Each structure stands twice: as structure tokens, then as C-alpha cells.
Amino acid sequence: MGSKNKLKRFKENETFPNVIQPSRDELVTSEYHLKGKWNSEVFKNNHPIILELGCGKGEYTVELAKRYPNKNFIGIDIKGARFWRGAKTAIEEEIPNAFFLRTQIELVDKVFAENEVDEIWITFPDPQIKYKRTKHRMTNLEFLERYKKILKPDGIMHLKTDSEFMHGYTLGLLHGTGYEVLYANHNIYKLEGSPAEVTEIQTFYESQYLEENKPITYIRFKIN
User: Fold this and answer.
1) Could you tell me the residue range of the domain that residue 88 belongs to?
2) Residue 126 annotated in active site
3) What does the pLDDT read at residue 131?
4) What are phi and psi of 25, to 5 degrees?
5) Neighbouring-strand partners of residue 181
6) Which of 6, 22, 112, 188 could form a disulfide with 116 if both were Cys (CB 3.0 to 4.6 A apart)?
7) 8-state DSSP, 23
8) How does pLDDT run across 197-223, given as a tens digit for each residue?
């Protein structure tokens, strides 16, 4: 994507009512004004809140919001030029329960209050295979602790990835720490039993992986 296109999308994001872009200082130096108030201030209802972390173009956020109108969805990514597509689609198709938040994933517990979130989706994260990058792996223990802070006691986590490494690493970590694995499938399009929203919603990159015959994996689990 050219720099002109990026700038255009950044500017357009600023006009979108469904895009929220706090500064890092807002989150780190003081109590964020929406923390604990996403239902009352943003969605104006008491429906469950579901996050998509590293939402990319926002396909999952938008499609889940269409599928479940009685739930609230927030796609989170630091790359606003990417989720511009999902935000624009949600506006064009009048999907009121899909919002987008531009921030870093490691600040998620600064944005949401304890027990404020019902579910978290992690879709096709960078597996960060190199040892020096493990601190950025989105299912490492440090990140799981952040998610645990904001999830309700019965909150659900979802991991969908094309990385067999990420799938195996996360499963091993969950079993090793005693967290509850509710469902695991290392090839969702070949083996039966995957939930409909796992196989019927596809991201832009997922369709590319499928063309390359890459298996797509999925884990549903609890960390509280």
C-alpha cells in the first residue's frame, strides 16, 4: 500500500464514529476514560463484549458482529490503515455493534477493566518463532495474564492460526499451566466438529493460506 493511500485512510479513520484511537500517553499515564465503560459509553447497551486482537482488515470483527447482533465486537490493531476496511464496511452496512480500536495489544489491560470482556479472538497472529521474539508472542504467559485481568471468570479465548508452531506452542503452554482446553483442531477444514464461525468466516490471508493447502488450526480455551 502506498504512503498516500495510508495517509488517506488514517485521515478517514479520524472521521469514522466506530474508530477509537487513544494515544499511548492516555493509556499509560492515567486511567483511560473508557475503561470499564465500554457498554455504557460506546455501545449504549449491556451486551457481551468480544475482542479481536490483531484484527488486520477486520473481517472477523465485522462478520461476527453481523452474525451476533446481540453482542458487541471490538477489533484491535496498531495498524489503522488495515482495519480501515473493516470500519468502513461496518459503516456502509450499518453494523452498530462493530467498533475498532487502534492501540498496541500489550496495553489491552489499560483499555479494559477487570471482568469487562466476555471473549477474545486471536486470528492469525505472527508466531514470532525466533527466540528473541518470544516476548511478542500473543499467547505467551505474560499476554495470557493480561487477558485474564480483563476477562470474566467464565471468559472464552479463541486462537485461529495457520502456524502449526503457534498451535503446538499454545496447546503445550495451556496444558502445562493447567488452563482448560475446551476444543482443539489442527486442521479445521478436514476434521469435523469445528464451530460454524471458525469455518464459515475467513480472513483475507486465510483464503490465501487455503490456496496454498496450509492447514488452519483452532483452539478454544479458558484461562480463568
Assistant:
1) 3-222
2) yes
3) 66
4) -60, -40
5) 221
6) 112
7) -
8) 999 999 888 999 999 999 999 999 999
